[in-house]
Specification:
There is one protein chain. The protein has 96 residues and is mostly beta strands. Helices cover 0% and strands 25% of the residues.
Length: 96
């Protein structure tokens, strides 16, 4: 895990990418010349906040059965991992 600070930036947001499931301590450091010795090298660090990322697993939808023409078909949706499933029927670009 990276334990060094990013380069200084003026943006109010930062994106950490490529993280696996796990817990990461995140800190923010502010430097505007008013902290430390009063120079632009003075920074104030936040306390670490733990952020936990959980794998959501995968979802899959099986083939409709029975095959061929019928008034009623069965489709099975399944998942692995954590989380819950929600369902919706989409026909072309129109959702039902």
């Amino acid at each position: 895990m990276e334990k060094t600070w990013t380069a200084a930036q003026t943006s109010n947001t930062y994106t950490f990418s490529g993280l696996s499931s796990g817990t990461y301590p995140i800190m923010v450091s502010v430097g505007n010349g008013t902290y430390g010795n009063g120079s632009t090298t003075g920074y104030k660090n936040s306390a670490a906040t733990n952020v936990t990322l959980v794998s959501l697993g995968t979802c899959s939808v099986g083939s409709a059965s029975p095959s061929g023409w019928t008034q009623s078909k069965t489709v099975t949706a399944s998942k692995t991992g954590n989380g819950t499933l929600q369902y919706r029927i989409v026909s072309g670009t129109t959702e039902k």
